From TrEMBL:
Higher taxonomy: Bacteria, Bacillati, Actinomycetota, Actinomycetes, Micrococcales
Principal place of residence: membrane
Transmembrane segments: 52-68, 74-93
Alphabetical list of InterPro entries matching this protein: AA-permease/SLC12A_dom
Amino acid permease/ SLC12A domain ranges (all copies): 27-122
UniProt organism field: Paeniglutamicibacter gangotriensis Lz1y
Listed name of the protein: Amino acid permease
Length: 128
């Protein structure tokens, strides 16, 4: 077991795990000096600064939430753009090939005006 734990240590020193550990160590040090709540200086029976680790993990999760916000901020305009292209393609199809559109079994509900409504809504919701 000791060899496995020793093999994990270099991996834990990199990336986000290193930041969590550094924040926890900083909290323990400042709590020991009296500049942070004393609860952060307490160690578990296995000598782990559990309170400081949990506190720093909360901020790690906040970083994950920020990353999720960033991804959705990027993907939402792309989604609106793609569906706008689909609606414009439908309008062009309906104008250039009315005979095929008339014979189609699959029609957009409110097909004469709804694409314009959706495009107007998309344009108004994509701006800041």
């Amino acid at each position: 077991m000791r060899g496995r734990a020793a093999a994990l240590v270099p991996g834990l020193r990199r990336g986000r795990f290193a930041r969590v550990g550094l924040v926890a160590k900083g909290l323990v040090a400042t709590a020991a000096e009296g500049d942070a709540p004393k609860g952060f200086a307490k160690l578990s029976r296995t000598k782990v600064p559990r309170n400081a680790l949990l506190f720093s993990c909360m901020f790690l999760l906040a970083g994950v939430a920020a990353a999720l916000t960033w991804v959705t901020t990027i993907s939402a305009p792309c989604f609106i753009f793609v569906w706008s292209i689909v609606l414009v393609s439908y309008l062009v199809y309906r104008e250039r090939r009315p005979q095929l559109h008339a014979g189609s079994k699959f029609k957009i509900p409110g097909g004469t005006f709804m694409p314009y409504v959706v495009l107007a809504f998309s344009a108004s919701s994509s701006g800041r």
